[in-house]
Amino acid sequence: MARHAIWNACQALGLKRNDVVLVPAYHHGSEIEALLKAGLSIKYYELNDMLEPDENELEQLITPDVRALYLTHYLGFTQDAAYWRKWCDQRGLLLMEDAAQAFLATREGQPVGSFGHMGVFCLYKTYGIPDGAAVIADVAIPAPTSRPKSGFIRMAKRHFNWLAERNSMFGRVRWFFAPILTWWRLKTDRPDEDFALDDPMLPPANMSSRLLPSVLSESTAEIRRANYQYLLDHLSDLVPAPFRTLQGGESPFAFPIETEDPRGFLKSIRKQGIEGLLFWFFPHPSLPVEDFPKSKLRREHILAVPVHQELTKAHLEHIVNAVLETQGKLTRTAIVAS
User: Fold this and answer.
1) Domain boundaries, the chain
2) SS3 label, residue 47
3) pLDDT computed for residue 189 by the predictor
4) Share of the chain above pLDDT 70, in %
5) Which of 65, 114, 116, 154 is the most buried if burial means most Cβ atoms within 10 Å?
């Protein structure tokens, strides 16, 4: 997983215990856990309205123990990593690029993740494989040494969900068992499971290694951009500001929607067969949430719907209709309540 790539890159880059990394307050959490498990300390920084670091804030955070800047490419949209690499070089810092959601994205023709001293990618966020991550760096990264898992169970689950989105019979089965599965997850999941590092030397599952060469395609990012543009043409009023325009090099991970009731929104579209997600709803426990109000608001109001390369025109039309219908219902409910 990408968190394993981060941990290994920290070792290879020579970062030492208690070295400080500047990290965004708007994050998934697993990357933060990987940095902490690598023995590093962190300082959080807020992002501006376009999800970019604020240079003045970063300057105030720099102390002699700060060794690196952690830069995230959100939802496959690219940061100006070339600028931040130059900024880091001038200050003797390492640039760590998180392209977990931006595999195959480019900035001015150069692959995202290749600007920094290291870049990490999460392959299964782009392709329907059980797991798999990649890392590139200015130094050699040791190969994973643990025994790989088969990946069969996760692959079977993904295939069933794929069928459930395309076949009414499988869809009804998933809908029937969904409450039971939710109950079981709540009963058995570890509170920190979404952030846990586990074994950082674990290689991709055997099935991931076998499948990736057959699904990898240079056209993937282009198809995702086209799907994103279609949704944007119909739903732009619901999209957060940083994601309202495509520049041409993005590889969109998902399509973001800003709403007052993301949980209610997701529940409604799931009844119509669309599997969305709350986008980074839970921060890492180390984050003082109230100190970063912009990131807090994003967590509370943004969800995401599919934009992947397997969607057809009919799927995209269905997403648009479901989103507009749900938004209409929520708006009418809000008006009645007021």
Assistant:
1) 220-337
2) strand
3) 54
4) 88
5) 116
